[in-house]
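Q: Protein A?
A:
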Amino acid sequence: LPEPSLYTVKAVLILDNDGDRLFAKLMLMAVLNCLFDSLSQMLRKNVEKRALLENMEGLFLAVDEIVDGGVILESDPQQVVHRVAVRVSDHPLSAFQVLQSAKEQIKWSLLR
């Protein structure tokens, strides 16, 4: 027998009686397609690293609208975009965000 190496594996075939693995893969594909289509609409077809970093909160909101605790809530990109339509930058800072920022600044001033 030859030693296992990267070049000896040609294919991996998964046969499953009940189709659970296939169903899970199809659901994952549906969620990822919905996320990409939603982000594509939100970012006006500019789904690139820089645009995603600048709109990270919108990305998190889209993921939150699509999936919650492992349960798929929505798979229609139009609905996701509609729910996330309120721009994140239009919201003032919440009290929690101000408190977290103050804690970080105090921590760094004490560490110096």
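Q: Protein B?
A:
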Amino acid sequence: MEPEATSSAAGKGSAGARPHGSIESASQPAASLEDPAHGSRRAAASSAAMGSSSGGNRAVSEPLAYTYFGHDREEVTRILIQALSDMGYQAAAESVSQVSGHKLESPTVAAFRSAVLEGSWTEAEKLLNGATISGQGSGQGGRGGYSAQEGNGLLLSPGSNIVIMRFWLRQQKFLELLERRDTANALQVLRNELTPLHHDTGKLHLLSSLLMCLSTNELMTKANWDGARGESRRRLLIDLSSCISPSVMLPEGRLAILLQQVKQSQINNCIYHTAASSPSLYSDHICDRSNFPTEVVLELPDAGMGEVWEVQFSHDGSRLASCGSTNVVSIWETQTFMDSASLVIHVQKDHESGVASIAWSPNDQMLVTCSRDNYARIWDTVTGSLIKKLPRFDEPVSACVWAADGASFILGTLDSKRSMCTFDMAGDELIQWNKKHRVQALSASLDGRWLVAADNMTTIYVYNGQTRELEYELDLGTQPTSLSISQDCRSLLVNKADSEAQLIDLVTRTTIHKFHGHKMDRFIIRSTFGGANESFVVSGSEDGCMFIWHKSIGAAVERLSGHTKRCNGATWNPADPCMIASCSDEGPIKIWSNRARAAEFKNRPPGNHNGWRPPSEIA
């Protein structure tokens, strides 16, 4: 069992929820020029128009039903025309358009599309200025088309803000001028075209700072922008199309989006989802329980490790690291689970108080160990050699998270004077966050947007990972023991000492699900996401069991008995949906998989004293 957080200094009292900033600001990436709500899907190659989107005369001899299996026939037809064009079947798309009488886009919409993709900003703004908002034009559009009386045929969706659309166009124009090193004209656009719109002062300040960039690479990095020859114009068109009525301009890749939603819905409702590949469209998706990791297939000997507090797979799933109450941090190769001298870190006297936590670098070449002797260390995971021992803190080092680029990492400690510090990969301190709360656990989103810290009392702190500004706090009413952010960077999983795991939407700050069944007390027990498509939540428990819940449904899927003492946590192999590792106070690490793999491992010859042994050979 990993001891609960303790500190020689006095603890901080609990507090209520104290938001910092609005929900809107929490959903926007700092210093970013692209609105994440509009996505970055690669758009279709076709930019040719197919005439008016109004009904027209059909080139068929008999009238067809108004609906297609309950769906609007015109909507289905236009979506099919777009999909055929996207896939390169242009002749087929034109044939369907001619036979059905339904057209994909009006000439005005096609001209607007071309203007944006070709960088004809004057023409694009001219067409935008002639647009009207749906429901506000003088004419009445058809069922799926538009009326010529409604401006020039560019019909905006209700609630669209034409000022914001102008801002996006002029912003792209400004950036492309800077890319061409035409600073004088870029400055004129900033002063005379962007600033008078009085939109988003923060972005205007960022755009102003870009004038000082010394190179195109610096510009692209600071602006999070890939240039006129990259995907920036295509992404701009996607942003703009989200404001245009789909009756005249379909969202990019609409059929692909709908099909992906169908697949995701089936995955979300698959109780035992283990398929790593995308489901087929030919049949409904369902996975059999026999493929789910419910069997202990291996037990890794403790090798003097004593209590094991944490296990973590490498990002590529090829290795498994473990730490605990003794002086050993072990790394196992997951194909054979043979332990070799080059993959075992024997810390000897340095970690006399045990290793509380470990963190793989993004490229899996380094491992940071967080020790209760108040030190953190950086290790080479291939040779097992120590790269650097960081300066001593006044209190134990409790957690570590790496930046997505692998260039730096953040340590969390119980030292209230230095509770959060950023170091580079060489171990040199870069930034002190100057936060007054202690840190028991940390988690960071893959996009760098979120950094969440849990103190040793009852509060979690949600930071902007790029600006280090506190966005809001949440008082949970009980001690949080672990944190994990989902791969989609939207959900936060918090394990709590009151025997509850809570799934929180980071943007809306609302609770999505609460998971119950596992037992917790005053010791650190970890939960995390895992499985195919990260469909599950897995946690240890005081009673030695491992609990698995379905993330989308919120229901308990399995309660698996495998340890005789407290199960301190479990982790899912990110590259293998059918492999879980769990650890406990009893020592041996359990490897879980499905029935077929259990039989496979049973028939393997036993390993040496440093390697794996089948469960049947463990006394």
